[in-house]
Amino acid sequence: MTRWMIxxxxxxxxxxxxxxxRAEGRPVLAFGRQELDLRDTSAVRRLVTSHGPDVVVNxxxxxxxxxxxxxxxxxxxxxxxxxxxxxxxxxxAGARMIQPSSDYVFDxxxxxxxxxxxxxxxVNAYGRTKLAGERAVLEVLPRGGYVVRTAWLYAATGHNFVxxxxxxxxxxxxxxxxxxxxxxxxxxxxxxxxxxxxxxSGAPPGVYHATxxxxxxxYGLAREVFALLGADPARxxxxxxxxxxxxxxxxxxxxxxxxxxxxxxxxxxxxxxEALRESRVLVAG
Length: 285
Description:
The structure is a single chain. This protein is of the alpha/beta class. The protein contains 10 helices and 12 strands. The chain has helices spanning 12-23, 41-51, 72-93, 125-140, 161-170, 188-199, 218-228, 260-263, 272-278, 281-284; strands at 4-7, 28-31, 55-58, 96-102, 145-150, 153-154, 176-178, 182-183, 186-187, 206-209, 216-217, 237-239. It has a 6-stranded parallel β-sheet with strand order 2-1-3-4-5-10, with helices on both faces. Helix 1 packs across helix 6.
């Protein structure tokens, strides 16, 4: 039976993935940031070597997009250098590695969904560091490295947009939300299922996209959250990105195509509205 190792197991995706694997009775070792800091490359090598996993999924990342603008070296140490060290350790141990990545490796100017082989062109420091991690995995593990790009991730734990909107609704707020950035809200539970499916599919190494299907704006997502909570969606006001300046630029359109899943023989992921409704994230608050 495949032996799994999850790095960053206390985050949104790591929590869901670890829970799924354990529920299915699969052998899994889970390490949160308290047990392993990717910046400690010696510790990374020792951990993988000592446990000898078959599949390593790196859910650890620097995800503070705005902070990365002024702390890019620190973000790169996690998202780039640390990922490379992990890939090298996997290579020595003969393990496959799955590296979740981001829609933010694209600039958001495409008229159609980005295919897996589209040329990355990040517009912020976070995207650049995630792209560095992608390249490290594909370079170091050409026969055992998988990059899985996702977008707009949310879960019942951690800091994410869906939980923030749910909190604002409970507080009686009427938030202003940008309506000119488009992407694919993705439940971490569905992404975890896709990663497990990909690992068992026999698909060739490379880049895969994994998001819930359909797309919307942040404004559209906020209205859906309010509606599912029984609140009036009209409480959410649409604004422009220009009215809501942030330190890091965001891609205006970062919808991901998923042709790669066909090579893996995997079905499309369900629509983001269905996933949001059935995820019970809003019930958890």
